[in-house]
Amino acid sequence: MTAAADARVCPHCGEPPGEGVFCAACGRNLAAVDRLPTRAEWEVAGAPEDRPLAERCEEATAAFLAAMHAAGDPGTTKTKMSGGSGLRRAKQVEGWTVRPVERDEHLPPQRYESGLVLSLEGTFHQLDNEARGYGTRDFPVWEHRVAPEPMAMPVEARLIAELGALLAANGLDPAQ
Questions:
Q1: 152 pLDDT more than 90
Q2: What is the 3-class SS of 75-91, one letter each residue?
């Protein structure tokens, strides 16, 4: 029995977890799991291993960078850095948007989650957006900016799945 690609599954066995706190298929406790992966995310990330998640994230990042550099760095974008002087040209970070900014301003609990950019050099940067164009008919125009200082690599299974999806989106095989 396999689940649809967009269905939420148990992070341990990849099957639909059922209604309770324990997975109906494998019986593991899911109370500590923040967000269940989709079947597609689970297949890209693979089943959990005994190795630490930080080690697997580092390997996935290194493999991603090696594959993208070998392919000529497809899908890169240049994003301006936040801060700096208004008198000089803004510095930029060239890389891949691993996780776009999530913004929902139409619901009562307004939600904003920063995105994530991986530079060509292998550093992670926080991606934010800000409204521009006050007083114009096109308001709001969301301008993306990255933080000038690199951030620590996010240690989460979601990162492995996102890097694999980004490889696939650029025509590369995430399994290699």
A1: yes
A2: CCEEEEECCCCCCCCCC
Q: Which residues contact 118 (CB under 8 A, 6 or more apart)?
A: 61, 64, 65, 95, 96, 98, 124, 125, 163
- Kindly report, residue by residue over 140-150, the tens digit of the pLDDT: 777 888 988 99
Q: Do residues 131 and 30 touch, judged by C-beta distance below 8 A?
A: no
62 contacts 47 by C-beta, under 8 angstroms: no
Which phi and psi (to 5°) does residue 146 adopt? -110, 150
Please state the pTM of the whole predicted model: 0.67
Kindly report the average pLDDT of the chain as a whole number. Answer: 83
- Cα separations in angstroms, 162 against 43, 57, 61, 114, 174: 12, 11, 10, 15, 10
Q: Is 135 exposed, middle or buried (0-12, 13-18, 19+ CB in 10 A)?
A: exposed
52: DSSP letter? -
Quick count: other Cβ atoms within 10 Å of Cβ 117? Answer: 24
